[in-house]
Amino acid sequence: MARTINRLSHRKVETLKEPGMYSDGGGLYLQVTQGSDRTPRKSWLFRYAVAGRERQMGLGPMSDVPLAEARDRAAAAREMRRAGKDPIVEREASRAEARLAVAKSMSFDECAAAYIAAHRAGWRNVKHASQWANTVATYCSPIFGNLPVQLVDIGLVMKAIEPVWSTKPETAGRVRGRVERILDWAKVRGYRDGENPARWRGHLDHLLPARGKVRRVKHHAALPYAQLPVFLAALKERDAVAARALEFAILTAARTNEVLGATWSEIDPDGRVWTIPAERMKAGIEHRVPLGDSAIQIIKGMMCTKQNSYVFYGDRRAALSNMSLLMLLRRMGRNDITTHGFRSTFRTWAAEQTSFPREVVESALAHTVSNKVEAAYQRGDMFDKRRVLMSQWAGHCNAFDRATKTVTAFRLKP
Fold first, then answer.
1. Residues 344 and 399 in one domain
2. Contact in structure between 264 and 299 (CB atoms under 8 Å)
3. Which H or E run contains 273?
4. Which candidate, 59, 133, 138, 266, has a CA 20 to 30 Å from the CA of 388?
5. Using CA atoms in the order 154, 156, 160, 164, what is the torsion angle rounded to 10 degrees?
6. Contact, 59 vs 45, CB < 8 A?
7. CA–CA gap between residue 79 and residue 85 (Å, rounded)
8. In Å, how far are 105, 110, 135, 137, 177 from 163, measured between CA atoms?
């Protein structure tokens, strides 16, 4: 039976030891029970009726909930009753919602891992996935990787990219773009809502300068085309797979990864053509490369020492590594140039020493046409014209005369 007390006090609450219900008024009760060790246990209850049926809602033990807080909780429950709501039902609904929110929550790192896993199959090479993971681990994880993705805001994004925006603008741009994609993925999957704090246009562009204004683009160091014949003559004297790979890359004006990944199934010596499949091309489009006499000689030489499915083989049945070409240039004392820079050498030579149309030269470099209208009409790959162009390029590359140690001028018009 409940014992009515006009108003409980902190002192009175502490002294109550007899088992029973002690009313504080307004539906709030202190329940005193006796444990197995005969020690009194005290807890708060809110008693009310719904449709004539009495209900009791626990408000917590007195050891955790002091009298003032118990009164606040009872007052909140009375407000619910005045609004026609059942406090117990409302509390259970709130707890269920909280459990659902926890079940649905994901940290930013978890979202990043899920995004990478979902898109891995669509990326051209495995390195791209590792680059994504490394970017997140280096610039994002230390700042907000463990936080729920819903809590990632503009302040956290700025904290990740602002320190490197002026010193490493390209890296900072990649970080921003990848964070934006991960947060967009999280929003679509229901893990966050609201604006994307990593969005550039109309958002971060008000807080950071454009990357192009921060630092001029640093192009790959390239060898002047006038010096190329002497360099190639020195390269031919080196007996190494890396030397043949670099020579082949120069003669074909192909990208380093395209050359190093070349397989025998892609080479047609009789047709004098190298067909690079779409999945290995930067633009995702199959590319045919005409092979001149010098390139065919390299192919035949590599056939004699064939080790595996790769033309330019490395160890353990793998392709030659990119580092091999870099070390080759270092051994030649050419730290001032890069392998990729030879494509720039070719482009400059073609512009200044030939009259081939721009689109033929760009096609030789496997560059995509940026103008959509132009691309719609330009469906062919101009292979025959490119064969003539690459023949002239090979003539320039091999223009060094070892006997006289002079470069023979080689210039033909298409």
1. yes
2. no
3. strand 273-276
4. 266
5. 50
6. yes
7. 9
8. 29, 24, 15, 16, 16
Fill in the DSSP letter of residue 242: H
* CATH number of the domain enclosing 169: 1.10.150.130
Co-location of 365 and 266 in the same domain: yes
- The pair phi, psi for residue 339, each rounded to 5°, is -60, -45
Which residue reads 């909930």 in tokens? Answer: 65
What total number of domains does the chain contain?
3
Q: pLDDT tens for residues 258-309? A: 999 999 999 999 999 999 998 898 888 899 999 999 999 999 999 998 988 9
How far apart (Å, rounded) are the C-alpha atoms in residues 88 and 97? Answer: 14
Nearest to 175 by CA among 139, 123, 147: 139
- What digits encode the pLDDT tens for the residues 70-82? 999 999 999 999 9
Q: Taking a C-beta distance cutoff of 8 angstroms, is the pair 48, 23 a contact? A: no
Its pTM stands at 0.52
User: Which of 134, 137, 155, 133 minimizes the C-alpha distance to 146?
Assistant: 137
Question: Does the pLDDT at position 103 exceed 60?
Answer: no
- Tokens linked to 255: 């990208």
Q: Is the residue at 338 inside a domain? A: yes
Domain boundary pick from 214, 234, 269? 214
Q: Could you tell me if 148 and 285 lie in one domain? A: no
How many Å apart are CA 255 and CA 124, to the nearest integer?
Answer: 15
Enumerate the β-bridge partners of residue 56: 47
CATH number of the structural domain spanning residue 359: 1.10.443.10
- Rounded to whole angstroms, the Cα distance separating 215 from 173 reads 12
Alpha helices by DSSP H, listed for 16-86, are: 67-82
Per-residue burial over 302-334, b = 16 or more CB atoms within 10 Å of its CB, e = otherwise: beeeeeeebbbbbeeeebbeeebbeebbeeeee
Q: Which of 78-92, 156-170, 185-199, 204-218 is least confident?
A: 204-218
Closest to 338 (Cα-Cα) out of 256, 241, 398: 256
Query: What angle is formed at CA 178 by the lines to CA 173 and CA 179, rounded to 5 degrees?
Result: 100
Of 62, 72, 52, 55, nearest in space to 31 by CA? 62
Cα end-to-end span (Å), the chain: 110
